[in-house]
Structure formats: C-alpha cells, structure tokens
Amino acid sequence: xxxxxxxxxxxxxVVLAIGLFVVFVWAPIDSxxxxxxxxxxxxxIGDALAPSVAGALLAVSGAGLVAGAxxxxxxxxLGLANFGFVAAFVALLAIGLSIMxxxxxxxxxxxxxxxxxxxxxxxxxxxxxxSGGSFLVFSLVYLVERRFDARRxxxxxxxxLILALAYDLPFEDLLLPPNADV
Length: 182
Description:
The protein has about 180 residues and is mostly helical. It has six helices and two strands; from the N terminus they run H-E-E-H-H-H-H-H. A two-stranded antiparallel ribbon has the order 1-2.
C-alpha cells in the first residue's frame, strides 16, 4: 500500500514547527523578561507571555492536525465550499475584532465619557473583549453547526467572560485587548 501525504499532515507539521520555534527560540530571544516576573513582591506579565501562549496554541493545533491526518484514511479534497468557509471565517474574524476594538470606546462616547482613563476600570475594561469575544465564539460555532439557540449565545458570553477573567485577574498590570491600543 502506498502512503499518501495529505495536506493536513503537511500543514500540521508546518504549524507544529512554527509553534515550537516561537515557544523555544523566538520568544526567549526576543523578550527581555520571561513569561512572568516578580516585581516588588507581586507578579507582573513578562514580555514572553503572549508569544509563548500563541506558540503553544499553534503547536497543540499542529499536533492535532498531524494526529488527525494519521488517523484519517483518505485525505479530504478541497472544493469551492472550503474556500467559502474560509472567506466566511475571515469575514467573521474581522467583524469580531472590529467589535472588540470599537465597542468600548463607542459605549463611552454614547455616555459622554473619555474612554482612555476608563479602559482599566470595571466594567469598561471588559466591554470590548466580552462583546467581541462573544460574537466570535457564537458566530464561529454557528458557522460550523448552523444552529441558533439561546444556550449557544449564553455559552459564548460565558466563555468570553471566563477568558477575560482568566487573563485579567492574575495580573494587575494587564490591559485586556484591545485596551492597550486605545
């Protein structure tokens, strides 16, 4: 039996290699501090945290693609529907990131407040991340499952809020995305 190299296997190996490179080579060389550092008795985010988390997620995703390619008997064929799915994914990602970027300042403007001094205050610091993150989670789940119900909406909001709290609570100096850019 002749072994075929699938596109998923090649993509998985490339993504895994990039993820490992980011975690073990690029992040340590490019960062002045580690993942986290203790400053004056409290923990602060290091320069290597974001690229290390991103690299780890890439490596895990690449490993999943490699494992899936080995377990799947025949490689899938690409068609017009695949490109439509990718186009919809990119469009939803752009919309979600726009919501994340502009919803906090937009709400502040509607309430006649200047957003910049409020961007690290509750509830302001969560508006963009939770609204854009909820949209992203829900819309991408809808894109895959083609089902709409209140449970998925509530779960999307809960996931975005849990992610926001998981990033925000351990570190006092962290500004949730996109607040550092505003």
